[in-house]
# Entry
Amino acid sequence: MLFILLIPNTFAQEKVNIYLFYGEGCPHCAQLKDKLNYLKDKYPIKVYMYEIWYDSKNSELAQKVAEKLNTTISGVPFTVLNNT
# Structure
């Protein structure tokens, strides 16, 4: 997973905030959540997780984030690293 490979290089440059929008029951999301939990225990990062399939407020937040980043959400997991 390219995303996971890029994170350690980012730590040397700036504070890292990771925003994960996931769906409860999604196997890909569960795998990414496990990897992010591992990374936050190993590196100084802050991880924010938002379930969007069953939580309408989180789903609305995900849409607002996607609009602000000028992108669309085509599925989960949808991950934002800092402001990208």
In short: The two ends are 17 Å apart (CA to CA). Strands lie at 16-22, 45-51, 78-81. The chain has a mean pLDDT of 88.
